[in-house]
Amino acid sequence: MKLWIVVLIIGIICSFFLSPIASSHPDGLEKVAEDQAFIDRGAGEPLINSPIPDYTMPGISNERWATGIAGIVGTLIVFAVTLIIAKIMEKPER
């Protein structure tokens, strides 16, 4: 359990400090969609609204803080899902 906590802390630190320095350029799929002129086909109302749109936290005006906090929230969500999957897949003790 101590290892999981250490990994979580390292993940939170990395996500907070590295998220704000991520590239502002579009990712590969978005770039191809722009180059091939079909990016507008994805426009419209999303099926599910993102709680963290464009990797920023709503209500936080400082962009660096908003991006860092979005990174932390994303890290916690991935960590929680990973723990849940690990518990489900865990072999029962004999």
Q: What percentage of residues falls in helices of 4 or more residues?
A: 55-70%
**Unreliable segments of 5+ consecutive residues:** none
> What is the tally of helical segments?
3
β-strand percent reads: under 5%
* Count of distinct strands: 0
Largest sheet: none
Ordered list of secondary-structure elements with their pairings:
Layout: H1 2-18, H2 28-35, H3 63-89
Helix pairs in contact: 1-3
Q: What would you say this structure looks like, in words?
A:
Helix content is 55%, strand content 0%. The model has no long low-confidence stretch (mean pLDDT 85). With 94 residues, it is mostly helical. Helix 1 runs antiparallel to helix 3 (63-89). It contains 3 helices and no strands. The longest helix is centred in the last third of the chain and has 27 residues, at 63-89. It has helices spanning 2-18, 28-35, 63-89.
Features:
single chain, 94 residues, mainly alpha, extended
Task: Give a short synopsis of this structure.
By secondary structure, this protein is mainly alpha-helical. Helices cover 55% and strands 0% of the residues.
